[in-house]
Amino acid sequence: MREGQIRIPSGCAISGIIDKTGKRMSGEAIIKSISVMHDRSNGLGGGFAAYGIYPEYKDFYALHIFYENTGAKKSCEEFLERHFDIINLSKIPTRKVKGITDEPLIWRYFVTPFATKLADSQLDEREYMAKCVFRVNTRIQGAYVFSCGKNMGVFKAVGFPEDVGRFYRLEEYEGYCFTAHGRYPTNTPGWWGGAHPFALLDYSVVHNGEISSYDANRRAIEMYGYKCTLLTDTEVITYIIDYLHRKIGLKMEEIASVIAAPFWQTISRMEPEKQKYHEYLRNAFSAQLITGPFSIIVGFDGGIMALNDRLKLRSMVVGEKGDKVYIANEEAAIRIVEPDLDRVWAPSGGEPVIVLLNGGVNSGS
Amino acid sequence: MNISAENMDFKELNEMIKAAEGDVFISDCYGQRYIGSGLKDKVITIEGTPGNALGAYLDGAIIKVKGNVQDAVGDTMNEGKIIVYGNAGDALGYAMRGGCIYVKGDAGYRTGIHMKQYKDKKPVIVVGGKAGSFLGEYLAGGLIVVLGIGADDLPVGEFTGTGMHGGCIFIRTDKELTGLPAQVVVGIATKEDKEEMIPYLTEYCEIFGFDAEKLAADSFYVLRPNAKNPYKQLYTAN
Known about the structure:
The complex is a heterodimer. By secondary structure, chain A is of the alpha+beta class. Chain A has helices at about 30-35, 70-85, 115-120, 125-140, 160-165, 215-220, 235-245, 250-260, 265, 270-285, 330-335, and strands spanning about 15-20, 25, 45-50, 60-65, 85-90, 105-115, 145, 150-155, 175, 175-180, 200, 205-210, 295-300, 305-310, 315-320, 325-330, 345, 355, 360. In chain A, a hairpin with a 2-residue loop joins strand 13 (about 295-300) and strand 14 (about 305-310). Chain B has two domains: about 1-65, no CATH class; about 85-240, 3 Solenoid (Pectate Lyase C-like). Chain B contains four helices and eleven strands. Chain B has helices at about 10-20, 190-195, 200-210, 210-215, and strands at about 1-5, 25-30, 45-50, 60-65, 80-85, 100-105, 125, 140-145, 165-170, 185-190, 220-225. The radius of gyration of chain B is 18 Å and the shape is globular. Classes of the chains: A alpha+beta, B alpha/beta.
């Protein structure tokens, strides 16, 4: 059984740590943080997104791929060789961990599109990448690309998140930003590819909640060429963010105002300028409004955004200490890593917290 | 009894608390849930960050927290006291039906959601700082006081009293309180109105070291449900 075959009507846990100066840290802290929220997940999925971990290959796309068998690997590699210059490939190092079983073959490729292929496609490089990834995931049976950004990577599995971290030897990686997810799947059965983070290019999403606008969002995003194959909320949220950021060019703040838009009633009480801004976004992108409970952390090249649904039906706490910013569902998951915080607060519903490298923290309070 | 709770599972911790003779002091608390749930006696003092549903179904015990608390503190609490020296998360006093919760700092969204009262059982929440949106949502009984100490703006968020049909909310502020639902009647609290909250305000001030008389003299809004069948024709033309 895998995602896409059945929808079972998520409690979950999310956590994120970023160093605003870009200084790299090991994956140890994020494992410690997410493990405090063990009881929020049920062992059917855990994962991490790590940014800044491949500086030696920072100009190449890092593909992380699950294969169900060697046949799938052969077909997929043939596809990759036709479309990309592969400059390095290897198995992703793992260790045996009790609680992580039935692992697929897990491989990593550092690639760059063939210049001629790219020119012939008349696509920009990132669109070319995205199209190739969709091709593999929908056409090559048994192969699944679960990470395809530059200088970042997703590591995920079926299991509790702390076990998943140990399985992937995450403590041996160094990055400037990590996000983590512990899963309690409610709509789908739980499969390696369906674990979070869900990622496309350098965008990754970890999500706690259960969106009620799933099908409206899915239908809308599929009109723009995205294919929702997993039936998970996280997949559709990632595509919405990719669409609004990469294709439409909205800023992260604007994206927050689209997906967690204020109520018309709230807008009617705003200053005229602000009112115009929100009215425009709500009208122009009404199909990208996400309703129902959620807290998400969006990772992207150079920063993260944390956001709650507008009614704040899921919890989220932000802590700051020096150059580091911590985000988690529960304050305890931050305190375990940094007991002595400079500042700790709970952002309001629909109020994004955006942390950029060397850009400080942007939040309403 | 002293317990260092670091790396301890919530079940083990709660069993130790229940088995302890006399008062309990917990240090290094990191997110263990349901601490003190259903307890009748004992005083539990906690250092660190206790997990969700602290003091759920509390039935007479006293819990003191030297730090912040997370979500759903005092969930369906029946009797006793929870004293928080820091801030509280969302859904504080969720469906509470008796006892008192005193928070020195701020509280999150949905404080006092669906509290209720019956005969001598009357739950009370006092928040020293600000409270988030949906304060007193579906409030059916009991008393909520928001003191707004140190707040420059209105100390409550949006949608206060949504679905309120019982109980009473006091908000200390000199700012204008707008956007309330039609089912809520709001006014400036008179001396007689304030009498209802004075005993709790006094106890709060004794615990955290504020001047009760001075605070009580300030301007408070008092919110009560509209007694004239407030939800008539809300859903059907009855």
